[in-house]
Amino acid sequence: MQTQTASSATLRQRLPLYLYGQNPTQVGADGPALAVRIAHKATLRYPYARLARVIAGPRVEWQAQALVACQREGLPIVFLDGAGAPTGYLQPVLGKPSRLDSVIEEMLDRADWAMHYSHWQRAERMNLVQDWRRARLAAGKEVEEDDFQELVRQHVYRPESEDFFFAPSGPQAGALTAYALQTLHRAGLKPRYWGSHGDPLELAADLTRLLSLALHLEMQGLGSSLHGEQAALLRVLHSFGPRIDQTLTHLLGSLHRRLKSLLEEWR
Q: Using CB atoms within 10 A as the burial measure, which of 118, 174, 245, 250 is most buried?
């Protein structure tokens, strides 16, 4: 996140704050802002009103007041390990549950909820692959049928228990997880739900995987751009932001419609 901006419009924009902690870093609260103290550097202040979410590395030490302030301001925090992969998150308590939240809870009362949810995930993976193909064709870039079928085989029909090629990792995973958490909080949804037999529905993690597939398809041909320096990767993710927002909106809308349709059939 940049601390200097060129216009008032940029000042009003909420941005993610990445604190990878290459050097020992402490985060405290200072009035309406987070105070970030990095060893041998001047303290930096980041107003809550300009922050969308926070991604923090293992060498970042948090004061309790800063954690409380982020929760009060509705800012999710994703914690990363030394390799940049998420180890956990801190999400504000859900305020007013949404209609989709109630629909999900009702679905989870059924013994076969996991099967229906898995079918929805598979359908959305197929939609992402088909959308990518249509976009390529619209741009005048032909997609060979064999190549398309291979993408379908890899990303649509492989069981969820396998490790997908597009499974998020490193800084990409932290950033996409934070996107998903922020969207769920604003939509009145929880990152995890529990079924009647104690099985979890990992909504945040599943949305992150779908986002990662969309990003992987969108960035086909960039090669090392997705696996290079953190700064370069974050610039790619930032430019992809509007597409991520659109994808998340579509996914939650699609899930709501699918579950409402199923519940109406069951009643």
A: 174
Q: Considering only CA atoms, which of 196, 191, 204 is closest in space to residue 114? A: 196
Name, in order, each residue with C-beta under 8 angstroms of 104's C-beta and a sequence gap of 6 or more. Answer: 189, 193, 201, 203, 259
Tokens of 30: 């200072």
Q: Which amino acid is at 2?
A: Q
Tokens, residue 241: 């932001």
Q: In sequence order, what E strands does the chain have?
A: 15-19, 25-30, 33-38, 44-47, 51-56, 60-62, 77-80, 86-90, 193-194, 200-201
Query: How far apart are the C-alpha atoms of 32 and 37, rounded to whole Å?
Result: 16
Phi, psi of 261 (to 5 degrees): -65, -45
What pLDDT is attached to residue 20?
83
pLDDT digit string, tens, across residues 134-167: 988 988 888 889 988 988 888 888 655 444 444 5
pLDDT digits (tens, 9 = 90+) for 3-45: 333 333 433 578 899 998 788 999 999 999 999 999 889 999 9
CB 256 within 8 A of CB 99: yes
The 3-state DSSP class for residue 5 equals: coil
Query: Rounded to an integer, what distance in angstroms lies between the CA atom of residue 45 and that of residue 29?
Result: 9
pLDDT at 233: 61
Scored b (16 or more CB within 10 A) or e, 36-62 reads: bebeeeeebebebebbbbbbbbebbeb
Beta bridge partners of 9: none
End-to-end CA distance of the chain: 49
Q: pTM, whole model, 2 decimals?
A: 0.82
DSSP 31: T
Residue 143 phi/psi, 5-degree rounding, is -115, 115
Q: Which residues of the chain have pLDDT under 50?
A: 1-11, 161-166, 221-228
